[in-house]
Please model this.
Amino acid sequence: MYGRGQQSVSFGPPVTPNVIKYLMIANVAVLLLQLLMPGLVVYLAVTPALFWQQGFMWQPFTYMWLHAPGLMHIGFNMLALWMFGSPIALAWGEGRFLRFYLLCGVGAGFIIAAWPALVTAFSPTPSYLMPTLGASGAVFGVLLAYSLTWPDRTIMLLFPPIPMKAIYFIPFILVLGFVTGPSNVSHIGHLGGVFVGWILLRRMGVTGGITMERLKYRWRRYKMRRQLHAVRMDDQRARRREKSHDDRTFH
Model:
């Protein structure tokens, strides 16, 4: 990651707050418990049908500590929590960060339970019976907090390896997830974490200067740059045609 005006590149934060360490340890410990007791997933993951029909009201509070077997799911979530959560926890304080993290995760859990039930009321959907697990809802809330706290900070992505302003990071990974993500990714959970995080950040006064007027201004600037680029390309093509015409040899 780069900071504005910085000349060096760093991978991850220089300091890892205790709250980040404890959250990572808790997630890994629960994953090990899952391996010993696979039946926990049925009771602790969010399954809308069980939430609404069987009264499993605790699931939005417990699903965020579970992960799919293997290293990919928990690895991505814990890497993101460490890289982007550590600066936020250092800036806000550990207690404030922990409340934000938990509220984003639990809020996303209730959205995961509610949305398929609402859709199923109009048309049956398989997601109503599908369990959802993972810390992604909470982590996406953290990513949003980082993006709005330091919107102009530059992030160097790993895959693909391109630099990007932090303010564009959330839209990029959401679109990337829709386009390239596996079919079992909970996009509702990701969007739910972003939605809850946005509400909390608005109440905290952390918006990164993002307002409707600001978005319209950015859109107008984008269109102007596109038009200017098109004019420059037309000029370059016209000059190449003129040069090619002038370089001809006549006999």
